[in-house]
């Protein structure tokens, strides 16, 4: 598969928590946890499992910076 998004973070799935319709998938990317909210159907379709290698693909029109 090829994708145009340049922000691809490869990691390992460490947790999948399913809710009524949405699942939270936690991915360990070099010691940093990235969490994605996707549908339960997507988890099943992709056959996601803890310990599996996966990519967090980030596509955003804006990235903001904030300070205290």
TrEMBL record:
SUPFAM superfamilies: MOP-like (SSF50331). The keyword Transmembrane helix does not apply. The keyword ATP-binding does not apply. It holds the Pfam family TOBE. Residues 2-67 form the Mop domain. Keywords: Molybdenum. GO terms for biological process: molybdate ion transport. This is Transporter.
